[in-house]
Amino acid sequence: MIQKRLQLANGLRVNLTHSPQASHAAALFHLSAGSHHEPEMWPGLAHLFEHVVFAGSKHYQGTQRLMSWAQAEGARLNATTLPTTTAWFFDIAAPKLVDGFARLVDMLAHPLLAADAIVQETAIIDAEFRMLSTDIDTLCEVSLGAAWVSPAALTRFHVGNLAHFGKDIDALQHALRDYHQQYFHGGNLTLWLSGPQSIDELAALATQYATVFSSAQGKQPPVTQPLTLRPERSFSMQSGATPRLQLSYMLPETHRLDAPSLTLLRQFLTDEAQNSLLAALRTQGYCDTLQLLLPYCSENGSIISVEIMLNDARPETAAHAEALFQHGLRHLRSVTTLQLRHYANLAAQSFSQLSPVDKLRTTAFGFPPIVQSDAELLAGWKTLLGQLNADNLTRLWVTPNVDNSIRCVQGFELGLAPISWPSGSTADLPLLTFYPQNSAPGRLDFPTEKVSLPQIKSEYSEGVLILSPAAKSPLPLRNAHQILAGLRAIIGDCAHRGGNLSFERHQGQWLLQLSGSDDVILSTLSALIVQLLAMPKTLQEQGERQYLLAEKALQSDIAIRCLLNQLPRLLSGEVTGEREATHISRISWNAALYGGSSVLLEGISHLLSLFPGDINDEAARAYVPHAARIDAILPTDSKDAAVLLFCPLPEQTAVCLAAWRILASFFEPRFFQRLRVEKNIGYVVTCRFMQSAGESGIMFAVQSPSHSTEQILAEIRQFIVDMQAIIREISPIDFNEKCAALRHSIEIVEQGKLEQSRESWLNAHTYAPPLTAETISGLTLSTLQHFQQLLVQEKAPWWIVSNPPSLK
């Protein structure tokens, strides 16, 4: 990887990254202005601007604008409005970077800001506001406004809604154009570009297009006020959500350029290894999860929030959790430069596993990678820790067990009240440990029995072991969370020894993935088997709590997300709502080793004979479920109607898989255009090809505040029928371009051993045979049209998932 920074003649800063093995390229524009810079008379203007620019620009309109074009090309794009910054970003197959970047630049430099688009997006934002009014994460962030005097914008409304936008569209359009003229110049913009293109090619691309923005000369930079806290800064908030304690700190000396120290702090706080702060919080029974958030970052300081998800709503639990957290902060003051560098390296490993666009997002406005020298690292660390004191602290305790009066903060109604916080116990606080440690792993005893374990060729010397539940014995969610609870400390210890252990869901399948040196893999595998065979009661209780939270989220999250998260459970045949967990020994697992030595293969084969459950059972490997039509109505807390339609392959063949993927690429932009733009049915409208729990299919998803589930499903069905005419009229040129793009997607070189082995595994464990270049080249327009007819005729059973119908 090669990186370079430059500045264009108009003042625009450019960060370039050449990743020769990358399959995708990414671009991100960062604007040094956000919701705190909008005019007071137009709350929500920055958020509205973020939306409206996607509606079209001077040179790219209709199907050629970035949104429609990117969807047709299978790109990923989005935007984010924060208090002091805004960003627009996308990633795409590398050969398409130039076309996408040209559209992104034109969208930001020459937006149409058309009246009809403004009307549509104000309605969408109004629906988002109503959705966010019940979102606990949003309400916790909003509550910060109650504790601050400055910046004054922290107390104002910024999301936007119809009441604040008003009905004078001409005036609103004028305000948007003024906002654009004031802030969109070279001095306010930073560009990130990454891809397999050379540094010179990326630099030429930036120079060719990004010089269109006006010069910074004579322009005033956005102004941010210094941070000032109110005397009253501890609150309880009444909510039926999971109890939590949010400790927020004012950091007047930590600015945007100092953010790497925050990356380091996050690495320490989220460390799951034995004797870490998080492990101690779990052992004491106060909380199971903790995260570090960055709700505000400017040139005049930052605000961080440590969010501790409490195990119960008792005030003493929150007080003890805070006392233990403060104990952890005191320990952090004693870490050595060697330990700082060790945790910085762990953060770098996590960063390297992100997708290209997520790397840009994290660098631009999240927790950027650490590239400092040891001296700079230590200096920034000391500055950060010096600010984490009681004078800079605000506190929010979220609990259902209070009856607070309603206060309006940032335009949201919150049940807030000041609290007098009880002192947490400081007795018997545990000794916390930081890494690296000098302890050597113990001697392993290998059983005489062994399992049959395939070894798959890989270009990497280190091995990657993957295990996943077989199709005939899906892993219940309760069991999955118990396994995860048992593995957390082992995951942390493995990372400190240079390995990587994870247990996560990918494409609807639970995957246990382990990599590292031979010694690390074997000792980690032995430790996790011992843990799974005799799970301590405390870890079983942790797993049960996390399972109950996950089940609750399947109803309380954004409605369409609830349905999407339930889909793999339905497809796999997992029984939901079980009162007892399935015994883990009854689960059949598939396993394979990617790369690695013959010695490693032999050691793993012997150790896996002890693993609870059958490994590589031939009957389980040959099992292919035959899905019947499902109409599932699942409860969600949202008042919006949500519909998820999953249309699986009508036949499990490679040619059908190729046709389905190409059909999805034609459907995606047109589906969004019809239901989101033309009919404005909902603010969540998406269609894409998807693999879930081994099934491949085309997914349609809509969430609407104005239409019923029956109306939404009727619209989706009509769209599928109407696409027959579109598919019949596809030109050979367009068809060949789609086929070429699909061939490129399967010929690309993956970035790392973990991603490469995971993708290989997932491709091998879907029911359709893998795609080949020959299959795609043999696909014809008539074949595509044939499969479109099978879709219309529902030759494969459709899976329809919705929330309960509501009266509209």
Automatic annotation (TrEMBL):
Sorted alphabetically, which Pfam families does this protein's record hold? Answer: Peptidase_M16 (PF00675), PQQ_syn_pqqF_N_2 (PF22454), PqqF-like_C_4 (PF22456), PqqF_C_3 (PF22455)
Q: Which UniProt keywords apply?
A: Hydrolase, Metal-binding, Metalloprotease, Protease, Zinc
* Record domain Peptidase M16 N-terminal: where: 13-136
Output the InterPro entries linked to this UniProt entry.
Metalloenz_LuxS/M16, Pept_M16_N, Peptidase_M16, PQQ_synth_PqqF, PqqF-like_C_4, PqqF_C_3, PqqF_N_2
Gene3D superfamilies tied to this protein = Metalloenzyme, LuxS/M16 peptidase-like
Q: Where is the Coenzyme PQQ synthesis protein F N-terminal lobe domain?
A: 243-396
Q: Which residue intervals define the domain Coenzyme PQQ synthesis protein F C-terminal lobe in the entry?
A: 482-581
Report the residue ranges that make up the Coenzyme PQQ synthesis protein F-like C-terminal lobe domain in this protein.
663-761
Q: Which family does it belong to?
A: Belongs to the peptidase M16 family.
Q: Which PANTHER family match?
A: INSULIN-DEGRADING ENZYME-RELATED (PTHR43690:SF18), NARDILYSIN (PTHR43690)
Q: What is this protein called?
A: Coenzyme PQQ biosynthesis protein PqqF
Organism encoding this protein: Rouxiella silvae
